[in-house]
Amino acid sequence: MSGGIPVRCPRCRTEHLYAPHVYPCTCGAPVSPPLQRGAQPTLLTYVTWEDDWVTVRCESCGRLDQWPQPELGCDCGALLRVPVKPASAGPAPGHAPLPLHIPLAPTAPAPRPAFHPVTIRTARDAVQAAALYLRWLGYKEIRRTEQRAASGVGLVAPGLRAQVEPTTRSMSLRDVECLWLAALNDSSVPVCFSLAGYTDDARARADSLAVPLFVLDLTGTPQPVNSPADELISTGA
């Protein structure tokens, strides 16, 4: 597990002490990206969704998975990407690879580790928090939609279509209906995430269409606001 390392901003030369976020592996062990001590951070001027993720190996079970790239916002306004040691191929030294799935007794509940949120400071943080939560629910290969949504940010995964509204605008009836129709077209589960909540008619329509609604608090933890959301949490993907 990586501890904090000094990171100097290449723009203003201010030095920060940075420690990466910790995430839960499928096996339940905490995982954090291994930082490259002494390496110079990258000053970001343009970012893409694909570049926001890094491959990290769990030290407990050897599993490789994708987690958000470590980034740091400097007081001068610069966004810095902190270098990460590349994950080696094959099982981690001293670890035999674990099976991806261990069958449970029919009556045993599916184990799920605690969700570790990412503090929301920017719109990008809100989208990452939603993506991490969907991954925690069991959805894989989450990516942004290729076509820009009319409002908010679209996320898709096999069997899923989600809409994230990372601004102070409440999601509307039209937002819910458009997402539901898009999900219906490709036989996916529609899910909404919003920082500012939903209008009354949007919530009523979501209940009638069984669309799960979540509100993102600033800690990065999605909170269910209707029964379909509670059911999704119980069943997962």
Q: Can you put this structure into words, describing what you see?
A:
The protein is an alpha+beta fold. It has four helices and 15 strands. The strands form five sheets. It has a six-stranded mixed sheet. Strands 5-9-8 form a three-stranded antiparallel sheet, with no helix packed on it. A two-stranded antiparallel ribbon has the order 1-2. Strand 11 and strand 12 form a beta hairpin. It is globular and about 55 Å long.
Write a short abstract of this structure.
The protein is an alpha+beta fold. The protein has four helices and 15 strands. The chain has a six-stranded mixed β-sheet with strand order 10-11-12-13-14-15. A three-stranded antiparallel β-sheet has the order 5-9-8, with no helix packed on it.
Topology:
Layout: E1 5-8, E2 15-18, E3 23-24, E4 30-31, E5 42-44, E6 53-57, E7 64-68, E8 71-73, E9 79-81, H1 123-137, E10 143-144, E11 153-157, E12 160-165, H2 173-185, E13 189-194, H3 200-209, E14 213-216, E15 222-224, H4 227-235
Helix pairs in contact: 2-3
Protein name: Restriction endonuclease
